[in-house]
Amino acid sequence: MAIKKAFPILILFFAFYFGGAQTNSSPYIQILGIAQDAGYPQMGCTQKCCNMAWENDSLKKIVVSLALIDPAAKKWWLFEATPDIKQQLHYFKNLTKNEYPYLPEGIFLTHAHIGHYTGIMQLGREVMNTNAIPVYVLPKMKTFLENNGPWAQLVSQKNIILNKLSIDTLLKLSETISISTFTVPHRDEFSETAGFKIITSAKKYLFIPDIDKWEKWNKSIVKEVESADYALLDATFYEVSELKNRKISEVPHPLVGETMQLFLKSNPETRSKIIFIHFNHTNPLMWDKEMQLKVKNIGFKIASQGDKLQ
User: Fold this and answer.
1) What is the pLDDT of residues 241-297, one digit of tens each?
2) Within 13 Å, how many C-alpha atoms sit on residue 227's CB side?
3) C-alpha distance from residue 280 to each of 63, 77, 115, 234 (Å)
4) For 59, which DSSP code?
5) Cα separation of 38 and 63, whole Å?
6) 6 belongs to a structural domain
7) Are 38 and 236 in contact (CB under 8 A)?
8) What's the whole-model pTM score?
9) Is residue 4 assigned to a domain?
10) CA-CA distance, 204 to 222, in Å (whole number)?
11) Tens digits of per-residue pLDDT, 27-60?
12) In this structure, is residue 309 part of a structural domain?
């Protein structure tokens, strides 16, 4: 009789124990930064939006970056090499309690704007003098890095090894992780602009930190979000009036309101997949709690540094 009573408890124990172990070993994403290329506060900004961060270090935010983590293999990959890479590698070390190598297995770059690639300078002989760190880039980005200083020195000194990505082709990083690369319309002065689908054994992640406008893309952002579990999307500006001394047409991005409008007819499950990221210092979603709550109440999410997506 005692055995019969104990049997369901044993089943629950093993389900919890082994189910938990399986979940804990699945790859996941950790957010290492959320700001636009110049960070928050931004250099030279004396507006109210930045003054509060100049006066309070706890409000400062670093530039958009993700860590893709494989707990089973004890490996990780970095998405974007930002000007804040020094802080981000240290941040990652602390977040993961020093369980992973300090340097990633590889680095994936979206494009040649300062917030997304200039951190690779820290891999050169003036700083870490790394040995053959794989850096994954699209063809024009590869050519740009090979033929322009100081980046070309990283290549010639073999601090980095450039790996050319192919569009819409799966790159298998491990038994449980694959990457699909695609291009999006953006200000491509020096390179094309990539977006990534990160496909793990457990989840699918869409990462588009920069794009001009959704209607310029040859794909439907609604369908792309529907097919993902998480979608980290460009939220540079909340509204058109944010830039006081510059035409927003010179730096086109989907306004947060425009993106939300596209998904208002979507079901709550689809809206909940969207995580806004890549905030300009003028974007109130960076610092205004009332605006943050307004967006969340509609069903969308707002990225925070340290968020774990699994």
Assistant:
1) 767 666 666 667 999 999 999 999 999 999 999 999 999 999 999 999 999 999 999
2) 11
3) 10, 25, 12, 10
4) G
5) 7
6) no
7) no
8) 0.90
9) no
10) 15
11) 999 999 999 999 999 999 998 899 999 999 999 9
12) no
Buried b (16+ CB within 10 A) or exposed e, 226-256: eebebbbbbbbbbeeebeeeeeeeeebbbbb
CATH (domain of 97): 3.60.15.10
Task: Quote the domain boundaries for residue 266.
Answer: 26-304
Task: Tell me how many domains the chain contains.
Answer: 1
* Contacts within 8 Å (CB) and 24+ apart, 170-179: 170/199, 171/136, 173/70, 173/77, 173/105, 173/106, 174/27, 174/70, 174/73, 174/75, 175/201, 176/26, 176/27, 176/70, 176/72, 176/200, 176/201, 177/27, 177/68, 177/70, 177/201, 179/108, 179/136
**pLDDT tens digit string along 155-189?**
999 999 999 999 988 999 999 999 999 999 988 89
Closest Cα to residue 167, out of 175, 179, 157? Answer: 179
In a domain, 10, yes or no: no
CA 18 to chain centre: 30
Helix/strand number for the chain, H first, E second:
10, 14
Coil, helix or strand for 221? helix
